[in-house]
């Protein structure tokens, strides 16, 4: 077979793709390659760089704060991904049930997703702050006199960040699951009812297997987004109390733009990238259809 890469309709297709490929290469591929090169250099912004090989990676692995920030990030991934999947699926089932006002419910649940993280953080800081916060004021009205420091208590800070994250992003998962639910033929449920299957049996035997593809997509996207955690702890707790909620992306930001250690920051970014790829690969293997 002759090679026809630049012949006929193929050439026209590549000409149409060229603008996207140029922009993608400039703003995606080039920064990735450049970032890896920086990770091999000792470089401060505005100064000449010095090639140090993998010394930045050695420095990173010896940094206890790096391991703490990585542990905080993995903890958030492990608690946020299942929570957002279950809540998103539950809301989608509710909206898909055919009740009155489902259009209004879809809008209500999805609306927070279109807001910026700065707006979300401001709203939840107002709700959770001590003494004058909306939640503590409500609890005081209910007879609970104790002042709860939602963002200052190390046992409650992650819970607060998780609640804010669910409220902000669960609408996107709801839309994905809702699209999957609406693609399931009604004939499946009608046949199950004729066989005497109750609602739970229908959910286990029809709904969940039919949502396997959507579940994989949602889990992978949610895991990647959770690994990129930055705005919520940075704006709500500033990584505190202490460094209890400092995520790895926040530590990369501090290393690169505050401490001016761009090489070490780049090496941390590539380690985070590698870990994210490994998690995504494991999820694809777990949800892969053996048929």
Question: Could you please describe the fold and organization of this structure?
Answer:
- The chain has 291 residues and is an all-alpha fold.
- The protein has a single domain (40-287), classed as MetI-like fold (Orthogonal Bundle).
- Helices cover 70% and strands 1% of the residues.
- It contains 13 helices and 2 strands; from the N terminus they run H-E-E-H-H-H-H-H-H-H-H-H-H-H-H.
- Strands 1-2 form a two-stranded antiparallel ribbon.
- Strand 1 (41-42) and strand 2 form a beta hairpin.
- The chain is globular and about 75 Å long.
- The model has no long low-confidence stretch (mean pLDDT 90).
In a few lines, what is going on in this structure?
The protein contains 13 helices and two strands, in the order αββαααααααααααα. It has helices at residues 9-39, 55-61, 64-95, 102-110, 117-128, 134-141, 157-182, 186-194, 199-210, 212-227, 231-236, 248-258, 262-287; strands spanning 41-42, 50-51.
Shape: globular
By DSSP, the count of extended strands is 2
**What's the total helix number?**
13
β-sheet strand percentage: under 5%
Contiguous uncertain segments of 5+ residues: none
Provide the CATH topology: MetI-like fold
Radius of gyration: 24 Å
Structural class: mainly alpha
Provide the succession of SSEs: HEEHHHHHHHHHHHH
The main sheet comes to: 2 strands, antiparallel
Q: Could you state the CATH homologous superfamily?
A: MetI-like
Give the N-terminus to C-terminus distance in angstroms: 32 Å
What integer is the average pLDDT? 90
CATH architecture: Orthogonal Bundle
**How many domain modules?**
1
